[in-house]
Amino acid sequence: MNITPLEIRQKEFEKAFRGYDKDEVKAFLNSLSIEWERLNELSKELKYKLEASEKEVQKLREVENSLFKTLKTAEDTGANMIEQATKTAELHMRETEMRADALMSEAKNRAKNIIEDAESKARIIIDDMEDEIRQLEQVFRSMDANKVSLMSDLKMLAEDILTKLGRHEEFPADIKPHIKKAKELSREVNDNHSKPVDVDQIIADNEHRQAEESISEMVEDTDDLDDIAPIDELSDVVEEKPEPLMPEVQDEAAKEKEPKQKVATQQDEEENKGSFFDQFD
């Protein structure tokens, strides 16, 4: 039932015997209408506030939904970005590992090839050096055998020459230098019999051999001489320069020197060059 303040003020009651006081009833209805009007105004105000509040709540709910959607979108985007970044990092890590493995494998292969090449070259050099050493050993043994045989022959020849010359009392002047050379040769043979063989010794031996041939020719000529000088006069003979070597002897000595010079040159080159790995530093 909707009652307005105006209806309350204009309300008319039936008159009856001994009823309520008319003035009091009007006054109460008047006050009631005023209070009712106030309540209506308050109700309208509250309704307006309620509607405003509901509208505000609706707006807040829309904002909340928007914020929720934004937050959800941000969360989804962050998760996607994190997942994408993780996948990219894993991909880069795998690529880096593959590249590092490839570089390591290539470096190992190159190092292996370098080492194998160095070992191969070292083996070739060692084999060449061993061959040269064996050749030099053979040359040395041959020279040593020739030296022993030559020393023995020269000693016997010198002793034989001195024995033959001791039978005579004087010699002609042109034979005296050869006789002195024979004596010196005999002393050198006795002194140098135990010394090691070298190239200079071979050259000296060849000179002795040449002197031996000259002395042998001179001794054959002395068998027919009548005037022989005393043996004591041999010490006064002036030394004469040794005769030059024959071309064949010089060629042989030069050939014997070449292997030693070649080995010395190779050793100097190896020392100056250093080891094979020092070249990569």
Care to give the gist of this entry?
The protein has 281 residues and is mostly helical.
Structure description:
Helix 2 (22-165) runs antiparallel to helix 5 and helix 4 (199-222) packs antiparallel against helix 5. This protein has helices spanning 5-9, 22-165, 176-192, 199-222, 247-273. The chain has two domains: 5-73; 131-280, no CATH class. It has five helices and no strands. The longest helix has 144 residues, at 22-165. With 281 residues, it is mainly alpha-helical. 77% of the residues lie in helices and 0% in strands.
What is the number of E strands?
0
Shape: rod-shaped
Rg calc = 69 Å
SSE order: HHHHH
- Helix count from the secondary structure assignment: 5
- Report the biggest beta sheet as strand number plus sense, adding barrel if it closes: none
Distance between the termini: 112 Å
- What is the mean pLDDT? 72
Strand percentage: under 5%
Based on helices, strands and strand pairing, what is the structural class?
Answer: mainly alpha
Query: Helix proportion of residues, in percent?
Result: over 70%
* Poorly predicted regions: 221-250, 273-281
**How many structural domains are formed by the residues?**
2
